[in-house]
Design goal:
With 186 residues, this protein is α+β, with helices and mostly antiparallel strands. The protein has a six-stranded antiparallel β-barrel with strand order 1-2-5-4-3-6. The longest helix has 17 residues. The protein is globular, with a radius of gyration of 15 Å.
């Protein structure tokens, strides 16, 4: 991130369990999400309080990377469509590639280059290179994709913000608190 912060981290889909709260989206108790805030963290088995927000208004708090704005939110919605329709490669590879493409969109400066700019992906090993190849394909293919409707953000001033798909039938809800626990996939 900007050449000033490097970390080795697992990436992909976050699986959440909703403990309580008054937000009506997501409707499910268990749901999946991608992080959209790279300067904050969440840890397994911890609880967090989130607010619901339009994707374009996330992440929070406001920073050089936030809010992402309508153009990046629409691009993430198209990446989500490409990822959801992809059946090639393992589920883990596809999820890691989607996260990399979303990260590049959110903080990469719009250059769609995973090896230069604000967001860098180390491609020095085989698995990371495979992720980069698929993420680059997602960044290319999103241009012709229809955006996934119903995406929204779960935001927090202190925890990593998430992009979450809402069921198409979900009604818009007022911003309210949500407590969720991230859990490890089995």
């Amino acid at each position: 991130l900007d050449g000033s912060a490097f970390t080795t981290t697992p990436t992909g889909v976050f699986n959440w369990s909703r403990d309580s709260g008054s937000i009506t989206r997501p409707l499910e108790t268990d749901f999946a999400a991608f992080c959209i805030e790279l300067t904050q963290n969440v840890t397994v088995t911890s609880s967090y309080t989130y607010d619901e927000a339009p994707l374009a208004d996330a992440p929070v708090p406001a920073s050089v990377y936030a809010p992402m704005g309508a153009a990046d939110a629409a691009k993430i919605a198209r990446i989500y469509t490409v990822w959801a329709n992809d059946t090639l490669g393992s589920a883990d590879l596809r999820a890691a590639a989607a996260k990399a493409a979303i990260g590049e969109t959110g903080v990469g400066g719009g250059d769609d280059d995973l090896t230069a700019g604000n967001f860098l992906l180390d491609t020095s090993d085989g698995p990371s290179n495979d992720v980069a190849i698929k993420a680059n394909a997602y960044l290319i293919d999103q241009a012709a994709a229809s955006p996934r409707s119903g995406l929204f953000a779960l935001t927090s001033d202190t925890a990593q913000d998430m992009v979450v798909p809402a069921p198409a039938s979900a009604a818009l809800a007022a911003t309210a608190g949500l407590v969720a626990t991230r859990r490890r996939r089995a």
